[in-house]
Every structure is written in C-alpha cells, then in structure tokens.
Amino acid sequence: MELTWEAYTLNLKTTFRIAHGASDQRNNVFVHIGEGMGEAPSVPHFGETQQGIIDYLERLVSSGFTDQSWDPFLIEDILDSLPSGSLAARSAIDLAVHDLVGKQLGQPLYRLLGLNPLKAPHTCFTVAIDEPEMVAERARASNMPFIKIKLGGGNDEATVAAVRQATNTHIRVDANAGWSREQAARLIPRLAEYDLEFVEQPLPVGDIEGLRWLHTQNPGVRIFADENIHTAHDVALHAGVVDGVVIKLMKSAGIREALRAIQVARALDMQVMIGCMVESSLGVTAAAHLAPLCDYADLDGPLLIANDPYQGVVYEGSRMLLPDRPGLGVMRKA
Ligand code: MG
Predict the structure, then answer these.
(1) How far is the CA of 107 from the centre of ligand 1 (A)?
(2) Are residues 94 and 126 in the same domain?
(3) How far does residue 229's CA lie from ligand 1's centre (Å)?
(4) Which of 54, 75, 107 is the endpoint of a domain?
(5) Is the dihedral of CA 226, 228, 234, 236 positive or negative?
(6) Is the terminal CB of the chain with fewer CB neighbours within 10 Å at N or C?
(7) Distance 261 CA to ligand 1 centre (A)
(8) What is the CA(173)–ligand 1 centre distance, in A?
C-alpha cells in the first residue's frame, strides 16, 4: 500500500489566541494510504510540528510499515504495528486506515461503528481570547446556540460577563491550563454565576492533585479535563476528580484509542466531549463520526478556516450532518 503525504498551511479567518499562545496559520499534513485519507494537525503546545510529523512518516516508509499485507478486517493489528512517535502522524495513519477500510467495505465509518448519526450532539462555536466586547460581539454575531469562550487571557470575568449580557446562548469556557490553583478556586465560583455548562482544563497540564483539590472546593460548575487526557488510562486517572473529559483524535493518536477512552469514561460515569485541533474538514469529519457516542461536541474547526481544501461534515447552524459516503466521507474540493 502506498503512503504519501502533503504539507498544507491552513489560514485562520481571525487570529486564534488561547492561553497557550496565538496563531494565524497552522501547518498540518494530509496523509494518504491508497484511497484512505487522514490529517495530522500540528499543535505547537503538544510539541507536534509539521516537520516532526513528516519525519515520522518518512521513518514509517523506510521501516517497511507500508509493505505489510493489508487485511481490512485486521485494523487493530495494522495500527498496533505502528512505532511510537508523533501522536498527530499516528492519528492521521489511523484515520486513513479507517477511511480505507470504509471505502473497501462501502460503508460510512459511523455505520462500521454501529452509530446513529442523528445522535451527534450539536457543536459549539469557539471564540478566542480578545477584548471582552470583541468576544461578546463575535459570540452574538455567530448566532450559535452553544458558545465556547477561551479564557486565561487576564480579563476572564469581564469576558464572560460581556458574552452573557450580549447573548442568551449556552456558554462553556476553556482556560487551556491557564490558571493556578488559587486563581481557579477564586475565579470559577464567580464565573459560575453566569450560568456556564462547564469549565475546561482550569489547571496546568498534569496537575491531577490540583483538580482533586478543586473538586473538594465545590466550585459550583462542572469541570472537564482536556490537555490532561490522551488515553483511556488518563481517563481512569481522573475518575472522581473531574466531571468530564475532552477526547480529541490527535491526543489519542486516532480513533481506536479514542473509542477506548470514551468507553472508560462511560464506565466511570464521566461525561465526554469530542473536540478537535485546528484542522480541516478531513480531521474534523473523522471526529464527527464518533460524536454520537459523546455528550458534547466542539468540532467547529472548519468554521474557523479560510482555505479548507476538503468537504465532509456539513453544518446547519450548530447541527452537524455526517456525510453518508463510504469511509470518512470526505472529498477534496474541486
Ligand atoms: Mg480545551
């Protein structure tokens, strides 16, 4: 099976500023295995760069990974043979293998997984860090019933207050690891007054003990872990510590581990949001196929990009319509 890739720069419609930093572009890599396609998003704060992704793919080719015989019913074996390394590249390979198998069997991925596409939760629309009035205006102008506000920029309470005043939408917020324990304990109960769905990743990456402590403070709003969670094992470590977890295909290195992470969360009575990185319709549509298993979705990537080269999931406002074509159902735009 032939493995090829294409480096591609996604241009964002507006500067995307979060607690980790700001960007106007993302340098992703599209991966092809035969007819199968996947996307490897570069994510600077996870150490995933375009060059690192390409290096991994070159290593795969020279290691003979693509020379093995492919049996579409042995996805687990194929993916188990991937060497460790770039999560983003492994995720793209996992997506491309699932896409390829779906195409070989003539079925959309959600059908291979036994999922009802009508059960996909609505996606939120993300508004990045900016002056509170700008954030409120973007939230209002989006006309979306679910808004996610990025926090950790210093004006957090004023920002949430401005959005709450400008709209009556559902609001969830994401600190992207931007607060200390003390800041979080002081700020979250105040933000809770504005009727939030939940707060994502308030504390620095890996501070599980801090989350456990925060939980005992009864912050008044549900807490979800995002950057802390990569694998099913990470989900288990957060049982009783947070109310929910955010699953993303890049973090779990693909669909297989994402499915395990979702099932572990379910077993531990935790809620699940499926999210994405800054990705085109290729990577985001793959995540959308798992959305029927999740309580919440944050899959607005394509809405933030000016030059999305693919078409896949279709948005009707916040509602996501999954393509019924085989595999991921994603096509290159003409
Ligand atoms: Mg997040």
Answers:
(1) 31
(2) no
(3) 10
(4) 107
(5) negative
(6) C
(7) 16
(8) 9
Residue 165 belongs to a domain with what CATH number?
3.20.20.120
**pTM of the full structure:** 0.96
Segment 283-307, tens digit of pLDDT? 999 999 999 999 999 999 999 999 9
Domain ranges, residue 234: 112-332
Q: CATH number of the domain at 7, please.
A: 3.30.390.10
In total, how many domains does the chain have?
2
- Distance of CA 202 from the midpoint of ligand 1 (Å): 9
Q: Helix 132-142 to helix 156-166 angle, to the nearest 10 degrees?
A: 30
For residue range 240-258, list pLDDT tens digits in order. Answer: 999 999 999 999 999 999 9
For 81-115, write each residue's pLDDT tens digit.
899 999 999 999 999 999 999 999 999 999 999 99
What mean pLDDT is reported for the chain? 96
d(CA 136, CA 144): 12
Residues 28 and 58 in one domain: yes
Residue 255 CB contacts under 8 Å (≥ 6 apart), including other chains: 94, 95, 98, 109, 249, 286, 289, 290
Whole-number percent of the chain with pLDDT over 90? 90
> Ligand 1 centroid vs 122 CA: distance in angstroms?
17
Is residue 39 located within the same domain as residue 178? no
Question: What DSSP state is assigned to residue 299?
Answer: -
129 CA from centroid of ligand 1 (Å): 13
CA of 200 to the centre of ligand 1 (A): 6
